[in-house]
Amino acid sequence: MAIPGTANETPSHVPRATASMVASRAGVSVATVSLVASGKTDGRVSAETVARVQRAISDLNYVVNRVASSLATGSSNFVILIAPDISNSFFARLIAGVRESLGSSYQLLLSVTDSGQMPRAESVRELLAFRPAGLLVDAPSEQLMQSMSIDGPIVLLDAPGAKGILPAVNLDVVHGAEALATHLAERGHRTFAYLDSVTATSTFALRRTAFLAKAQECGMRQTEHIRARSTIDTGSAAAEFGKVWPAWQAAGVTVVVCATDTHAYGVLQTAHSLGIRVPEQLAVAGFDDLPFSAMSHPSLTSVELPARKLGRAAASLLVALIEGRVPEAELPILPSRLIIRDSTGVHN
Amino acid sequence: MAIPGTANETPSHVPRATASMVASRAGVSVATVSLVASGKTDGRVSAETVARVQRAISDLNYVVNRVASSLATGSSNFVILIAPDISNSFFARLIAGVRESLGSSYQLLLSVTDSGQMPRAESVRELLAFRPAGLLVDAPSEQLMQSMSIDGPIVLLDAPGAKGILPAVNLDVVHGAEALATHLAERGHRTFAYLDSVTATSTFALRRTAFLAKAQECGMRQTEHIRARSTIDTGSAAAEFGKVWPAWQAAGVTVVVCATDTHAYGVLQTAHSLGIRVPEQLAVAGFDDLPFSAMSHPSLTSVELPARKLGRAAASLLVALIEGRVPEAELPILPSRLIIRDSTGVHN
DNA sequence: CTGAAAGCGCTTACAG
DNA sequence: CTGAAAGCGCTTACAG
What is the pTM of this model? Predict the structure, then answer.
């Protein structure tokens, strides 16, 4: 079979039209073509000329070469969002929010880091080499924040450690984590375990420390074997939980708190296959409140994080920076909310 | 609070270093800087000069401006993947596969269409204006395939209708869909309903038609109210199922087949809240075999689609096209596989 | 209202 | 081994 568009079929690559081709077809200069193509004709180009150029543009299927115009103007119209893990509906909502604020003025392009990896300073530099109008970096590590030099509009998302280093929009993870600790203490839990993410993202550090602090304040205790880690992946979390459960059980653990709902799903899965009853024998909770958490078995108690608002706020701050406007002095901190469901249901 | 890096703090934007700044610091020409920066020095630049230029490069933190080099060479080193819906672990695997084939030679950037939308021809053109090295388009509509002009390396993924129009890598959805129909017929089902995606993606059309054909061949029948649609979203699917269930029930439907597992989760959710027992009263099945399908309640029967392999095959074809190599004549069709779980468990 | 020309920051023959 | 120069396709003052 001949593959369409490849060498074994004579591709017939029509060379892309340039402004000068349009110019000669319309009988004008490239300067005029540029004006027409970018809609800057008001009081500068006669209506008749505009019409003639537009005809030539559509005849030739001309599209302005963004590479050339970026170079000429020193600016571009796309924004890159660097995200550590995209296989998560948290991101779908985040992206939707970013889109809302970006509107039609900027194209959004995503750069996804490899699974379980953090965005690296090196890849940020490579991306910057494309000269995006701005950069959004989700959940960067402390290290990345330190090593990033400010040379262009950039906004961090969900980067609680960014204070004073770079502009950032954050979630109020702390209140949600505290509400969770209080809730568990009220249900009578005394010994908990924490299943963390392997990445050194500061949002995860904050989720953990905020929960731990409040839990201790409420009289809950941790044992030596209190903490385990896995990548943000149901399978890995399930395996990790299976490995540490014997030690946790021996230590009297009655509730496992997970860095993300995705981790929690893994715990539910292994608990189910080991015959551990949830929530009677073991309570489980997570962060994110992914849509699936309402329908897992049992449904999952989770700290809801306002992903869409986060995206919206971050992108609108970025646009302000790009356009040289001074953003409102106070950056919003978006509230989190505890959603109580069956996985922490009984135990009193 | 002063926002770091913004106008209210005197940003101190260090202007980015250019090749000519490096050149004057190292006491060489920009041509030589270019050679050193791109590693083309073999037998062309003396070791001593190379070292001197490299010092200047690191002193000034110089990074080649990709915009300028793209314009100069007429080519870039990034690939854009256009995807209709990313909030789905199918994509995490697809992307991982694409990455594997792209290696370190090309940067991958994703462009996500709005939820429930198909990639539009217009946005493809806008993206092309950035002059990527190549384009990957996942699950395009028939219409998009028709209207896309071949002017650069492009590969479609999961586009069964692309035959002969553009190069594409496809999944063998048909066998999986047929296996599902056979399985359901063996379980004694006679009347089925189909919950489809709203988008006009050809992969969804193929899933449906392949299933329908085989189901009829096996003696199953459809009623007038056989088909419903929703976006690829658990909540919408749940709502849609709730709306059509009375009609389906009246028609004697005993099994609902869904275009994606995400749809199926919605059906499970509504079934649960309506007190419909799955699988005793209603069997449910989907396509994709997302990780969650192994742990939903009940676990979900699904047609597994090899996302990672799809990504790998598509990207390696694209790289071949970019580099002007003639790809193997025969494009692989990647096999699908029926995974039978509890949601179609009994009923005999 | 329109065009000639400089310049964005690179790369690549071409001379030397 | 090294540099001067042209050119990639635009945009934007500047003249007219």
Answer: 0.85
